[in-house]
Amino acid sequence: MTTLDETPGFLSKERIVAPEGFNRWLVPPAALAIHLCIGMAYGFSVFWLPLSKALGIKEAIKCGPEIGFFQELFITTCDWKVSTLGWMYTLFFVLLGSSAALWGGWLERVGPRRAGVVSALCWCGGMLISAVGVYYHQFWMMLLGSGFIGGIGLGLGYISPVSTLIKWFPDRRGMATGMAIMGFGGGAMIGSPLAAELMKVFASDTQVGVYQTFVCMALVYFVFMMSGALGYRIPATGWKPAGWTPPVQQQANAMITQGHVHVSKVWGIPQFWMVWVVLCMNVSAGIGVIGMASPMLQEVFGGTLMGIDAKFVDLDKAQLTTIAGIAAGFTALLSLFNIGGRFVWASLSDKLGRKLTYIIFFVLGGALYASVPASAMAGNKMLFVAAFCIILSMYGGGFATVPAYLADLFGTQMVGAIHGRLLTAWATAGILGPVVVNYMRDYQLGLGIPREQVYNQTMFILVGMLVVGLIANLMIKPVDAKHFMNAEELAHEKKLAHEKASASEVGTAHGGSGESNSLWVVFAWTAVGIPLAWGIYRTLLSVGKFFN
Q1: Which member of 98, 331, 375, 537 has the lowest number of beta carbons within 10 Å of its beta carbon?
Q2: What pLDDT shows up at residue 366?
Q3: Strands (E), 69-200
Q4: Residue 77: DSSP 8-state
Q5: To 5 degrees, how large is the angle CA 229–CA 332–CA 197?
Q6: The domain 9-46+88-239+494-548 belongs to what CATH superfamily?
Q7: What residues in the chain have per-residue pLDDT under 70?
């Protein structure tokens, strides 16, 4: 009996081997098309307030104290709490890490096109299920749809281009993965204002407009994600860029291996766990402050944000609303540095090396976190903001650089699957970072410490996390040769991965030589560039509130 993975067809890996002369710059926009859509996971909080009054419309119909979390899954007579809705956000990143780890090996064997299609079906299908859940006021359907099914789509979509881009850009591994992962950071920058505009259109006296927005966004995302998935191509075995010669390991960076590690072996390799700790600590420190950036700025600087000498607790409702708008601009500014850092730092890592790049993240990041209490006490808003902007650039840069780090250490044959397993570090950090920041804040407030000082101790805890990451990074050395696949094992894995020696082995199922035409490159980059530019423009409008 023929299995699904062995069935030749439109989604099979054999059919997406690029023909001779294919322009590799068509692949990054395909990856961006998927990442810009699934990146909306970061922006789902735009739905929380409208959903918290989905029944009451103007004011939330609050549930009684006897209604617990499990009752809220099914209740239809009162509105959900924002804290309950936040579980969707938690599920996103837990499922992203676990699904990437579980199905990373499958992705390597079936190819990025099939994985991209499954990702589109899960992410967009999950949004449609969530729309039904909103319509019938059934929170369990939202958890199942966007949280669980959508989370699987997140994981597959996130890692779908990694191995492919690294193979297309062996000369610029960091830059290539940086371009795609930049899209994941930019997804919310497009999706959040789009969702806000759509909800305004669909809102009425009887609707908050969320389920209609889910439907519209699911349909738009499906078109983009399917276009990206169908645009994926993989290079023929042995392909390399014109004029590029692979570096000889002894003469070049010894950290860049010529061998390949099987994904099933990485759990037992010390370097994998060192990189795991590196990513976990970098992400924990960054993600811990992302969620608290807005209240942190407001509580530390209070009325000085609007030019008056008053602490946060002394402000009236109108003044609190004003500084909340200013803090939203600060959050938007951080998002720009998060996105830009993904491309800039990953590209720099091609020159500096991955290990040195992470040393900079941890040393410079630690110094900046340690400087925050001093700049806060001095009332120096610009130093405070500049520190966090650079920190967030390195947070994003850590995500974008790590796939190339893995390729350097473990080879390119199964780097997508190995990256999938490494994303369990992200899932861990998604819990660790916010818990440390939020609980430390509450603990400090409980001790009676003024609001403007409650984050000081937290900053030094985050410095400690970065020190742990620095030590782990310094311990990373080239992988022992015993862990690499031998020639027979590698040949077997290539066979399982349906790799062909050249495009001629798969007939003419490539769409002709027109794929290499520069007009297609311009069209592809324009298709992803326009929404990205619109998202940046809307973000800059918010940033303007901060500087004004």
Answers
A1: 537
A2: 95
A3: none
A4: S
A5: 65
A6: MFS general substrate transporter like domains (1.20.1250.20)
A7: 1-8, 247-254, 291, 498-517
